[in-house]
Amino acid sequence: MLNQQAVNNELERVAVAVGWAVRVADQGTAEERAEISSLIDQLMVAEDRCDLATLQTAGRRLAALAWEVGARLRGAGGAAEDQAEREAIRWGN
Questions:
Q1: CB-based contacts of 39: which residues, under 8 Å, 6+ apart?
Q2: How far, rounded to the nearest angstrom, does the alpha carbon of residue 51 sit from its chain's CA centroid?
Q3: Quick one: which of 89, 79, 81, 40 has its CA closest to 62?
Q4: On the CB side of 73, how many CA atoms lie within 13 Å of its CA?
Q5: Domains along the chain?
Q6: Residue 27 DSSP symbol
Q7: In this predicted model, what pLDDT tens digit does every residue of 46-65 receive, in sequence order?
Q8: If DSSP codes are grouped into helix, strand and coil, which group holds residue 51?
Q9: Which of 5-14, 40-49, 62-71, 73-82 is least confident?
């Protein structure tokens, strides 16, 4: 039961990361979009398996990637990246 609670807590964090990663992905490179898609797929499988380690690892990578895309866009005057940066800081990356 403790593991299920930890998985549920991580899923809440991952949901936030997925939301803003999807928002900035449209402005990312093809490689970044592919990686975001792959990470989201990994997260869905990890959720089905209640795999906390994968949720944490893929979730953090997704948050970091969204932050990287957002930071680059901020230099170009984008808007979604400001939210992505705030979320990445909150996420702990």
A1: 21, 58, 61, 62, 65
A2: 16
A3: 40
A4: 23
A5: 2-91 (1.20.1270)
A6: T
A7: 999 999 999 999 999 999 99
A8: coil
A9: 73-82
